[in-house]
Amino acid sequence: MRRGRGRDQLIVALDAPDFRTISEFRRRHLAALSELFVQVLRLAERAGLVKLGHVALDGTKIKANASKHKAMSYRRMIEREQELAAEVARWLEAAEAADAEEDRAFGKDKRGDELPEWVKDKETRLTKIRAAKAALEAEAKAAAEEKARAEAAAEENRRAEGRRKPGKKATPPSDVPAGKAQRNFTDPDSRILKTRDGFVQGFNAQAAVDSRAQIIVAHGLTPSQSDQDQLVPLLDAIAADLGRTPKEVSADCGYCSEANLAALAARGIAGYVAVARAKHAADAKRKITGPLTQAMQRKLKRAGRRSRYRLRKQLPEPVFGQIKQARGFRQFLLRGIEKVKAEWAMICTAHNILKLAKAA
User: Fold this and answer.
1) Concatenated DSSP letters of 176-225
2) Could you tell me which of 68, 79, 74 has the C-alpha nearest to residue 132?
């Protein structure tokens, strides 16, 4: 607090709050603090900093408050569960035999029946592994059921249109987790995510940034590596918070799908979405399928280097740089996806407040 010898010290009456006080205040008012985002966003709009002429979407991976070394794969869970169960059973048998021997030697009232701490630790670990294993199995079963429903609906549509799916019939989705599927014991909601610098245990933080003054007009957060399911929620959040949709939206290939391009068209938004990874958005080499995706590729090629897609790198990436590098936010402090979502909302709110302050 020494740097703020003016207004900062007047606010706290020269009594700087302890970090525990700040933490407790944030914990008690987390929901209210996350709701400040909309209020600050509307202030920025009234100040002329939000025009919704062009909005760019992007995501960035941020570390969770958990170590990736505290994660375990489903295959390893099965192995370790069996090992621990056998180990605990051997120890309990040995403990019972020792208790019986001591009872014969010293009498029943001379020794307590509490389990040793080393046995408790193993049993606790076994319980956690079983709970994580059950959670992975439940997720895999739900995903398999959802995929089966989607495939059944698609097949029904093809039959109604008199079409058949080419090739062999697809193998039914498995409701058993893949051997490499992982779950973290510290923050089970976080996931192992791939970044440019390797793998992190974290979350995929999303932001929609307005071109007028780099104001974040919508935010989101997901544990998934993919950005594809985040485009529509971000657009809906903009409409809900500001009562209107942007005229143009740009996004990288992670957001490209026929459903997302159809959603942009249905909302009357001019989309500029890369269809595949390439140095320049229009230079994708892989074969593009889907009529909307093909149309998008032609659209990007027509504009060439002058395409509005160029704004995608000019908007979200500097914002993420300001948050991560300039302000040093590289890891969440809270655990659990709902709390982490609220924390990300606070970070986005702080970014917009600083933009407002600089524009004043």
Assistant:
1) S--TT-EEESS-TT-EEEEETTEEEEEEEEEEEEETTT--EEEEEEESSS
2) 74
With a threshold of 0.85, does the pTM exceed it?
A: no
What DSSP element (H or E) covers 137? helix 117-160
H or E segment at 28?
helix 19-28
Q: For strand 248-251 and strand 54-63, is the pairing parallel, antiparallel, or unpaired? A: parallel
Question: In the numeric block, which tokens belong to residue 81?
Answer: 């569960």
Q: In degrees, to the nearest 5, what angle opens at C-alpha 331 toward C-alphas 226 and 333?
A: 115
**How far apart, in whole angstroms, are the C-alpha atoms of residue 267 and residue 248?**
11
DSSP state of 326: I
Cα R_g (the chain), whole angstroms? 27
Rounded (10°) angle between helices 231-242 and 30-46: 70
Dihedral sign for Cα atoms in the order 261, 262, 263, 269: positive
CA–CA dist 251, 227 (Å, integer): 10
Model confidence pLDDT, tens digit, residues 209-227: 999 999 999 999 999 999 9
Residue 184 φ then ψ, to 5°: -95, 140
DSSP state of 13: T
